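Supplementary Methods, section 5.1.

A reviewer requested that the exact input to the structure prediction be made available. We therefore reproduce it here, unchanged from the version used in the analyses.
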Amino acid sequence: MNYRIEISPLPQWRDARGEGVKKQIEKFYGFPVEQVRTRDVYTVVADITEKEAQKVAALLYNPVLQGWRVTAAKSENFQELPECDFLVAVGFRPGVTDNVGRSAKSAVGDILGRKLGENEVVFSSTEYLFYGRDLTREQAQAIASKLLANELIQTVCVLSGEEVSDGIPMNLPFVTGVDNVKVREYDLEVPDEKLMEISRHGILALSLEEMKAIQNYFRNAKNREAYGLGRNPTDVELEVIAQTWSEHCKHKIFAAKVDYTDAETGEKREITSCYKTFIQKSTKEIGEKVDYLVSVFKDNAGVITFNDKVDLVYKVETHNSPSALDPYGGAMTGIVGVNRDPLGTGQGADLLINVWGYCLGSPFTDDKDVPEGLLHPRRLRDGVHKGVIDGGNQSGIPYGNGFEYFDARYIGKPLVYCGTVGTLPKSINGVPGWTKRIEPGDLIVMGGGRIGKDGIHGATFSSEELHKDSPVQAVQIGDPITQKKLSDFIREARDRGLYRFITDNGAGGLSSSVGEMAEHCNGCRMDLAKAPVKYAGLQPWEILVSEAQERMSFAVPPEKIEEFKTLAAERDVEVSVLGEFTNDGKFHILYDGKTVCLLDLEFMHDGLPQMHLKAVWKAPHFEEPSISCRDCAADLVAMMGRLNICSDEYKARQYDHEVKGLSVVKPFIGKCRDVQGDATVTMIEPLSTEGVILSSALLPRYSDIDTYHMAASEIDLGIRRVIAVGGKLDKIACLDNFCWPDPVQSEKTPDGEYKLAQLVRANEALADYTKAFLVPCISGKDSMKNDSTRGGRKISIPPSLLFSMISKMDDIRKSVTPDAKQAGDLVYVIGRTLPELGGSEYFAMLGALGNQVPKVDAERAKAIYRAVSAATDAELVQSLTTPALGGLGVAFARVAMAGRLGLEIDLDAIPAEGCSDVEILFSESNSRFVATVRPSDRAAFEEKLKGIPFACVGTVTEQPELTFRSKAGGEKHIALEALLNAYKGTLDQI
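The structure derived from this sequence is encoded token-by-token as follows.
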């Protein structure tokens, strides 16, 4: 029997969801909508009576705020809403993960006292009731498709008020697939054009050279007949190779042999693998000089020491391509997916903190500037935030750091960074917590969610540009509730020693996880018919490569399997034994006892031909704008309202950063806790005095001038943000996340050689400056081909590199924040300012780029950082911040705004070389700080800074304004209120 359960807010109460929709309609569309009301609808398909359906409704609603209705029955407080002008119903398409419906199904089972059966389901949907006599159907349809739903994954039904009175169609998105297993074979003895057609048609994303390597392998493969296979590869085998060899999994561009030419100097050299030459090698060299590296570039996340009880685990991932198609599902999958990386590191980490960061087009972009087939940046932004908020908040993991960066070039493909920090016990059941192993005979076990078509071709799809034929099935929606149960189960199973090895099912699904696990013992045998699926109709290759979420793979000793399964059942986690690990060198996959894939592990993992690419560097040159007649005061107010400087508090506050009660220095600081800080500090356990510092750095506009100095400046910025909250240089590690436009020369990418040279230069700087600062990379990720050709227009992102810093803080009681604390304190500027406005936010405001990009003097910077750390360790600093975008001008404003106090600054006293007032205020020179100090601590503070450039440049005042004085510019006064209005106004309620 099917029942429609309607849960509606009572009309006497505000409908916050409806009001939010109305505000967005008014702000961005201007349609004549007077009121929006909303309600939740549950379609229960189960063997229950109407009285039982009413019982379910009575326990699903809030009697203070809501009423319920099931057919003619309704709650005593139910009040019928007036007839609307239009109703829009939004539900999920068949097969798309419906988390609310899934949770409601569990709740229905609890209410009825029995678990609902396989064929009993609950579907959720939301109905929006629009009131506006002048609203047209076309406008209602536009609201539905542009604001309320993503029709890639959701269904939309628009009804007029008269049509509603005739009955609302029941939401029943059943999957109608049937089991009809068919394993196809592909004849690879065909011309090259046909080989490439097989690759394109199958979304394999394989080059001709790679297809010919596969062709040659199957020509020479031995003994396939003994397993019931012919000469030709099966679709399962081709899909496995495509996933394993994808750019996403194999990082082919980073592993390529590169012929590099510097056209400026005439230098030529050959680089064999940017990853090995620059990233891996620099970390290895640093590892010989520092003692806190535990596991780097070996596992799902990097591991460093913290104390004698636990190590720290950290990973940051990107989820760009899926988020471009479905920002909500793509971003949620990003955060729950990266949660599984620490969870699958070593014996399994406990999850501590989430981080996020997004690179987007402006939410104020004109509709006509968004190519057909791309979502508007505003929709992308709303969906991405909502996805990570739901994924993180519902998992019970607080957010510790977050940022947004805006540039029109991210309209083509947004960048969605998600990261997770965990703690890993030093020792678990007598073995080091970071280790793992597999013995032949161990069982292959999958635990967590079931397998569906969602996420199929995710790895190969994310290895391509975004185009009109990008596969919709690559989109996934995570289920944080299922994953939370899984993670709790893992912790218990880990502590009881019930498995030897754990890893997550990410890109490539079982193909990737079990394929990589098999390398540890040299073989596996797995039957896909034993894998639990969401619905009928999946082919073997789909089961193997699906990236359906919330799944982990385990190696379980046979003698532990019953205890493992019993614990899983007690914790409501589904686990399935799929096969066993072997040592025969084969990746052997069956379906219902019949072999469908037989690959040599050596070929699967090492048979990929190395790319050979060419890179040519020629420095670009840009026009320098005139800055001689600028009004510094007016410019600073304007700067505070720019998208890359202004407050994103409205969105950020929707993330939970207090769920574990461990935050010390929070994302927003100051007297009113409304100014973004430099970094965050978090305890690892309640009442601990030890903490974790997290910071990040991203400066993509510098890339337009020189990616070498971009990468160097980011490393410096990430480090000094750690120092700015009280950290020390000798305890920092970093993660690198490269997101690049296509750097392979082709007809579609005529500037590929230059873009590859940009990649090489960024890697060179990474190696040079991580070694100079002794700050090793412990984990990372690259995402290539971040381009879009949708709508017939190619849009490429700027070369973007995110550095994420993690550091131990020995004593959180010595942490520092940017806000001025009291009038009369002295203001210091530490570090030297140079005329370096190239790529700056100030030049961006002027519509220019310039050429003098900030550079890093590592030796001078190290001396500054050690001196500043000595001052914070001696508790001589009242407040401390480091200038970044917008330079000293924005830094002074943040210090004043956060403290709700004024500053008087003598610009002529600031340590600078050859700078005008504009350059002193807005240059983004590296390695600088702004500090406030008690007058009584002046001598001791200045003693700590001996030998480095610094100056006392002013005082903190009660008067709520910034005052700048200089011989050249006279005296300028800027009201604190004007700065705050600009800073907080741009993205308020957006």
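Residues 18 and 37 are 5 Å apart (CA to CA). These observations are discussed further in the main text.
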